[in-house]
Design goal:
- The protein has a domain of about 30 residues.
- Helix content is about 75%, strand content about 0%.
- By secondary structure, the protein is mainly α.
Length: about 130
Amino acid sequence: MKKVLLFALVLSLAMGTAIARQKGGPDKPPRGGNDPIERLTEQLGLNLAQVVKITAIFEDTQILRDEEKEAFQTILCEIRADSHMEILAVLTTDQQVLFDELQQKREETRKAFADSHPEHQFGGRHGMLDCEN
């Protein structure tokens, strides 16, 4: 039984390593380039008409994704504001002041991080929210 478990563990680690290498690792684009059209053209042998149509599909999809991100961000900011108000309602006056100070410090830290790491801003790779509360 122990041998089977050990074998399964080694096999899963080996597969994970192979997949990571194939994808280029966490900070590297997958093999075949970062451009999906280029990659699909190479892998599927797309002709010019197919490239044009698939490019249009990708562009339309990106527009929809951007619109959905904005709507999602709005909803999350509303939820954050509601939660903030609910928390304040539970706290004493002194605690409310301290809570607001802590929130302000948190926001300053978040903005400083976002300024120094633009890839983490909303719409970037990791998407931080930018709410005005």
